[in-house]
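C-alpha cells in:
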C-alpha cells in the first residue's frame, strides 16, 4: 500500500477546501440549513458542474469521473471540516452505487449521468430507523428489517404487471428534496419473503414527504410515506431481467457493500470535522487568557489537546486505510467509522469544555460539531455496535475465547 497521495488527489482537496472556505462559513452554513432544501443549491450546482463531486466515483461511461473511493473520501473529509449540508452523502455515497450495482443497463444509462452531474439528487429510504442495519453496519441485513410480512415497514405488491408500495420510512437523509428515492421494501409474504429495492420519482401519486426536526440540522432528514405508490423495480422484471440475481437475493449483498464504502467515506468526513474542531479549540486556547497567561500554556490543557490530537490522527489513518481497502473488497469500513465517530465526539466535547462558559451556549459553533457527532452515531452506530458486529463477522471470539 502506497500511503502517499497523488497530485490529482491533492488537487481535489485543495480546490474543494478553497471553494468551501469562500462559500460555506458559519453564517452561510446557518443560512443554508434554514432553507426549504436544507442546503445551498448554488453550492451544490458548483459541486456538480464545476467539480464533478457527485460523479467522482462513478464510471466515465455513465458521466462520472472514474475515480476510486479514496478520492470521494478525501472530498468528504473536506466537506466534513465545515459540516457542509447537502445531498452528497445521500446521492453519491448511498443511492448512486446501488443503481450502479443493481440497475439494468437502461436504468443506469437514464439515471447515472444525471446523478453524476448533480442535476438529479437521490436518497435511500429504508423502513423505520433501520438504516445502519440495512447497510450491514451493526448486524446481519438479511433479516426482516424491511417489513417481514407483518404490519409496519414498507410492503411491495405486484398487480397487473405494476409494482406498488405502501408503508413508511423514517430518517431518510435528504429525502424531502431528493428527485429520486431508492426504497427498500418487503415482498413475497412468508413463502418467498425477501427485500427488494424500488425506484420512486418525486411527484409520484401517493408519495408524501415531510422534513423532520433533527438534532443535527446539517443532516436534513425526512419522513416518507408511501400510499399505494407506483414504483419501478431496481434491476428490472424478475422474470426476464438481465440483472435477475441483483433484483432478488443480491440486494442484501449490494446493500452491505455500499454500507462498507459509505462507512469509509463517513469515517473520513468525521475525521475532517474532528480535525477542524480541534483546530478551533487550539486557536481559542492560544488567545484566551487567565491568571495573566494564555490558558493553552497550562500543562493540563496541553495534555488534553494532545490526547485529542492522537485520537484524530489515529482515526485519520484508519479512515484512509478503509477507503483504500474498500476498492479491494475488504470490509473494514465499520471499524474505521467507529474510531472516527469516537474521535469526533471527543474533539467536540473537549472543544466545548475548553471554550469555557461561552462554549456551553447552544448557539456557539462548537455545538455544531457535537451535534454532528451525536447525530451520526444515532444514524450509523452506536460505536459499540459497530465494533461488536465487526468482531462477530471476523469471528474474533469463539465460545468465549479468542480465536487463534
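Residues out:
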Amino acid at each position: 500500500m502506497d500511503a502517499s497521495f497523488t497530485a490529482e488527489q491533492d488537487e481535489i482537496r485543495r480546490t474543494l477546501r478553497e471553494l468551501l472556505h469562500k462559500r460555506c462559513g458559519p453564517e452561510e452554513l446557518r443560512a443554508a440549513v434554514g432553507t426549504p432544501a436544507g442546503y445551498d443549491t448554488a453550492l451544490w450546482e458548483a459541486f456538480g458542474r464545476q467539480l464533478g463531486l457527485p460523479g467522482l466515483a462513478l464510471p466515465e461511461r455513465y458521466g462520472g469521473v472514474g475515480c476510486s473511493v479514496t478520492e470521494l473520501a478525501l472530498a468528504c473529509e473536506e466537506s466534513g471540516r465545515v459540516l457542509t449540508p447537502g445531498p452528497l452523502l445521500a446521492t453519491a455515497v448511498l443511492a448512486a452505487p446501488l443503481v450502479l450495482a443493481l440497475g439494468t443497463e437502461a436504468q443506469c444509462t437514464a439515471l447515472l449521468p444525471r446523478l453524476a452531474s448533480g442535476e438529479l439528487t437521490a436518497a435511500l429510504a429504508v423502513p423505520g430507523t433501520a438504516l445502519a442495519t440495512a447497510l450491514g453496519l451493526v448486524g446481519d441485513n438479511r433479516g426482516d428489517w424491511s417489513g417481514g410480512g407483518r404490519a409496519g415497514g414498507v410492503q411491495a405488491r405486484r398487480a397487473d404487471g405494476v409494482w406498488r408500495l405502501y408503508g413508511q420510512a423514517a430518517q431518510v437523509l435528504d429525502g424531502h428534496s431528493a428527485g429520486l428515492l431508492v426504497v427498500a421494501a418487503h415482498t413475497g409474504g412468508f413463502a418467498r419473503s425477501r427485500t427488494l429495492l424500488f425506484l420512486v420519482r418525486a411527484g409520484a401519486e401517493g408519495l408524501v414527504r415531510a422534513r423532520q426536526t433533527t438534532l443535527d440540522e446539517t443532516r436534513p432528514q425526512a419522513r416518507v410515506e408511501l400510499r399505494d405508490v407506483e414504483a419501478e423495480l431496481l434491476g428490472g422484471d424478475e422474470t426476464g431481467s438481465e440483472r435477475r440475481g441483483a433484483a432478488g437475493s443480491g440486494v442484501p449483498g449490494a446493500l452491505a457493500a455500499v454500507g462498507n464504502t459509505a462507512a469509509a467515506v463517513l469515517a473520513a468526513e468525521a475525521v475532517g470535522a474532528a480535525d477542524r474542531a480541534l483546530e478551533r479549540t487550539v486557536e481559542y486556547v492560544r488567545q484566551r487568557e487567565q491568571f495573566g497567561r494564555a490558558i493553552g500554556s497550562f500543562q493540563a490543557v496541553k495534555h488534553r489537546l494532545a490526547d485529542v490530537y492522537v485520537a484524530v490522527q489515529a482515526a485519520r489513518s484508519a479512515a484512509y486505510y478503509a477507503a483504500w481497502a474498500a476498492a479491494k473488497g475488504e470490509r473494514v469500513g465499520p471499524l474505521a467509522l467507529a474510531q472516527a465517530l469516537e474521535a469526533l465526539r471527543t474533539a467536540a466535547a473537549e472543544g466545548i469544555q475548553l471554550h469555557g462558559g461561552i462554549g456551553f451556549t447552544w448557539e456557539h459553533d462548537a455545538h455544531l460539531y457535537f451535534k454532528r457527532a451525536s447525530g451520526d452515531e444515532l444514524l450509523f452506530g452506536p460505536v459499540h455496535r459497530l465494533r461488536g458486529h465487526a468482531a462477530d463477522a471476523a469471528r474474533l471470539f469463539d465460545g468465549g475465547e479468542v480465536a487463534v
